[in-house]
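Worked example 2:
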Amino acid sequence: MAEVTIEQIKELREKTGAGVNDCKKALEETKGDMEKAVDYLREKGIASAAKKSIRTAKEGVIYAYIHSNEKLGVLLELNCETDFVARTEDFKEIAKDIAMQIAAMNPSYIKREDIPQEVIEKEKEIYRAQLKDSKKPEQVIEKIINGKLEKYYTEVCLLEQPFIKDDKKNIDVLIKEKISKLGENIIVKRFARFIVGEK
């Protein structure tokens, strides 16, 4: 796989408005070919969706999901730009999918930027302690720690979790696909997950 540079990612982001991870993946898939990477993002519906993602989303729904055993529930606020879109079946479908994702995978945060810095530092300390006796060079240890952090993000951040119905994409891509289809920005505003007997 071709080594992708920060400059390439930056250039692709400016051209498409897509996220860093999406740009990196597109460049890797197209072996650094900028035009093909733009096409790749457009085909996935990410480029146009990313541009819409800067628009204000103040409409939406509060979606309630209760698991069949009635011992697990999720409340989700999912926002879009207009009441018209909020009432569509497509919007209700993604609200349900995201609520079921939260019920099944128990994310702690919506996105990695929501994680307090002290939590990230604590994770790094744990990884460093695990590698203490490995006798690996410092730069190798740093790479391993960064890799472990990336895995941690996919576990605790809703948008980075693999979608339970199709693990080839994460929740961020799922939302961008729906943005592309509906033509409006969609934002996970907040959520709460409840289990009977759990504090």
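The CA atoms of residues 128 and 145 lie 7 Å apart. The radius of gyration is 19 Å.
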